[in-house]
Amino acid sequence: MPWLTVAVVAPLLGAALAPALPDRASRPLALGGALVSLLALLATLVRFDAGSGMQLVEEATWIPSLDVAWRLGVDGMALALALMSAVIFLVAIGYGVGPAPLGRAAAALLLLLEGSTLAFFLAEDFFLFYVAFDVTLVAMYFLIALWGGERRRYAALKFFLYTLVGSMPILLGIIALFLASEPQTFDMIRLAEERPLAGAGAGATLVFLAFFVGFAVKTPIVPFHTWLPAAHVEAPTAGSVLLAGVLLKMGTYGLVRVNLQMLPDAFAEHALPVALLGLVSVLYGALVAMAQTDLKRLVAYTSINHMGYVVIGVAAAAATGISGQARELAIDGAVLQMLAHGFVTAALFLLAGFIQARGSRELGELGGLMKPMPVYGSLTALAFFASLGLPGLAQFPAELQILLGTFDVYPAIAAVAAIGILLTAALFVLALQRAFLGATPERWRALPDLDRHELVALLPLMILVVVLGVYPRLALDVIASGAWLEP
Amino acid sequence: MTVPEMKAMEERMIADLFWLSPIGALVLSAVVAVVLALVLPRGRQGLVGAWVVGAHLSAAALAAACWLDRPFRAVMEGTVMVDGLSLALTGIVGVAGALSVGLVRPMAAGTDREGELYAVLSASSLGAVVLGSAADAALLAMALGLLSLTSFIMTGYLRRSVRGNEAALKYYIYGTVAGAVMVYGLTFWFGFAGTTDLAAIGRAMGDVPVLAAVLATSLVVVGLGYKASLVPFHFWTPDVYDGAPLPVAAYLSVLPKLAGLVALARVLPMALPDGVLGWPTAVAVVAAVTMTLGNVAAIVQRDIVRLLAYSSIAQAGYLLMGVAAIAGSERGVPALVYYAIAYAVTNLAAFGVVLAVQRERGSVDLSAFSGLGRAHPWWTAALVLAFLSLLGLPPLSGFVGKLEVFRAAIDADLAWLAVVAVINTVISLYPYLRVIAPAVLGEPASGSSRRLPAGAPLAAAVLIATVGTVVVGVGAEPLLRLADAADAVSSQ
């Protein structure tokens, strides 16, 4: 079986079917589509050999004249991110968006988003890669615009314009790589092997910058981040979960897949400024998050902080003079951080959504929640600790590896970036104290604790956060960047 | 002449008739349309439109039949080329002409000369096809005359519209002067070779003083460049599109333009073989200037028709890249053919939606498009797809078209032109997004109705054009192969 194709097509098929079926069939259909994807990816995982780079490639001709094809394949990074996406999508679809139960439109959009996201991570053809990238924008735009908060149209517009304009340089970069290859191809595997712009001077630098800007908007790296808080605050809970948990990884995935693998020479020349931008993101995200009183905004800014570590790790791996071991450490850490941040942030946005549904997500208005909602309080505390990088939880091994790897070439940056961890620790502990400890205001005394529906959505994520924290090898053995980083 | 010789000639001519059948279908289209328009009552003039649609589609089908019956050849004593370029143009004209009738019908229905308009449109399509097929200077001049005259009439169709009349007059004056300049240039060519046969002119060109050759060729390019609205012969375009009935503007933006470009792609290599006088470089410069001016000027337009006018100028620049590459690369003709197909369906879809909006809201100002998505999601989807295709996003046809002309330019050692085109693509993001963004994301204007009063012909034309915009891109392979085969231009 072409399992990767199944994983991509199942949700897309569901998206096409959903509008034709009655509303009561939407939820089973959406869950079914997402489940099929997850199972197909697990089947891929069983056959996956972490030691042998890009593999299990499925190829079907599409436009041979341009060497465009339906090419899907996995290496450690693609498989890990696709699996993470499938899990988070299952959670988001299970939790639902808009008025319960899940309607036809919502089901179709969520499945469209899942199919295009998986297509993006699994694509080994630039044509498909770009189309998938743009389709995720459209689907996410409608999720925000239709089911978002009060200023949803503004937020959706900002999100859409930023990322669409951001996708334009990516497209130009793709065209440049296509034209430079000989014979011309959209095949990403070949482009990664042949590196048509290796050492091409100014041209390679321009193409590198084009890709970098596009992916930086998506990640987002400061100063391209301004769309993110607005989009998160207005998006429905499931939208935020998917946006932060899955879609942001597209930026850093592209940074590794394209900038690092296809344009290593140009990246090496610009590794230091990129690492510095990552450092700015780490510090800026943490500092601005500290000043937030809106729980969703706070989590949104910590995302900028956490994705900053990924950028630092990738830049360090691209720098000249890094040892092979440190390089693998940095990239393994960066990919693990993408996974960890995906699960942790998805959980955080779910938690923010739960409390919002109970009245408010303003830290200033909350207080003493631990008493009426002990389960919610403890799980939130756990997620906060995971997010601040407590050992034993998912983000600790990831950030540790990134910093260790970075230390080999940029010891100063690694040292300063470590301060970011202190900042996030401070801000999460403060938030915890304000919302959960102290006296419980009258209006919150009778709050119901988490119900089964909410627990079912949250627990898988929390379990994964703990498992990855206690036993990161589980993911690292799959990621194994040493096998694929140099094709 | 002996009897067997006469027999042989007769057989040749009968065989030629098959090769001329697409042109014949368009002649028949115009003639029968005139008669039908006379005999049918006013309420029934739609039937004339149906006839013209059928005749256009037949012309396209016959072109396909000729294509299958290769090799390509010159017919009528070498004056008419039946080759990849001309057959592709005939196919495009057939389909785009039929779609144009769908756009015209809602505007013309019930007016006093509806049937005649379809007849004129047929004659215009005929002029376009002949212009793109002519391998003879005299035929070229005649075709340009026919195409221009019919275009003027269509532009001034709404007699009581002051702007329409002004546009027609402007178009007429501009067109006549440009046509006269071209004929003047053609007389020089005739003087060089002593014949109107372009191939013979090409053979004679080597012995002509460079200055005279450059001067004469420049004059010829004026007439064709005006049809294709290339800079600096583009000044009429926004005013005429703006003043003409919108469906006529849609027609002008596709058929005469593509005919002019195909004529350039045929005439220049024939009359100036092997890229003498450095014409590929000159054409490349014109292409670069045309696309840049079109895109930059489009930025400041608030009137969507003017925006589309400048966009069509820019698109002519991209198309001209294919022409510039012809001398240096065998990819030139395929790129031109493919881009022409993609542009025809895309631009007609864009104009069709704008037309529907104009009919509902009485305005083509940017503000009329705000919130279109809420009120008319399907029309908005068509608008978005068409504009994104003009912008050149995968997997739409405009992207593959751009890619093809980029490849052709690089293959012809015109990499700098590809770079200019890439920069232009970035510039064009703004004007196109400026329409799409408020349409999809904006709040709808108050009092907009639920249904666009478009009428079935318009809706069908937009649907077909939009599906074409997507399918030509996603399923590009058959058309790319077809375009590749079009390169077998017989320059016998």
Structure class of chain A:
mainly alpha
Question: Which geometry of chain B do the CA atoms define?
Answer: globular
Going across the biggest sheet of chain B, name each strand in turn.
Answer: 1-2
Strand content of chain A: under 5%
Q: Could you estimate the helical fraction of the residues of chain A in percent?
A: over 70%
Concise structural overview:
With 487 residues, chain A is mainly alpha-helical. Chain A has helices at 3-17, 26-47, 76-95, 104-122, 126-147, 152-180, 188-194, 202-218, 227-234, 237-262, 264-269, 271-290, 295-318, 324-357, 374-388, 395-407, 411-436, 452-470, 473-479; strands at 55-63, 68-74.
Structure, described:
The complex is a heterodimer of chains A (487) and B (492). By secondary structure, chain A is mainly α. Chain A is 72% helix and 3% strand. Chain A has helices spanning 3-17, 26-47, 76-95, 104-122, 126-147, 152-180, 188-194, 202-218, 227-234, 237-262, 264-269, 271-290, 295-318, 324-357, 374-388, 395-407, 411-436, 452-470, 473-479; strands spanning 55-63, 68-74. The two termini of chain A are 26 Å apart. The model of chain A has no long low-confidence stretch (mean pLDDT 92). By secondary structure, chain B is mostly helical. Chain B is built from 19 helices and two strands. Chain B has helices spanning 3-39, 46-68, 84-108, 114-133, 137-155, 162-193, 198-204, 210-227, 236-243, 246-271, 279-299, 304-325, 332-361, 372-375, 377-391, 397-411, 415-441, 456-474, 476-485, and strands at residues 73-75, 80-82. In chain B, strand 1 (73-75) and strand 2 (80-82) form a beta hairpin. Chain B is globular. The relative contact order of chain B is 0.10. The mean pLDDT of chain B is 90. At the A-B interface, helix 5 and helix 6 of A face helix 16, helix 17 and helix 19 of B.
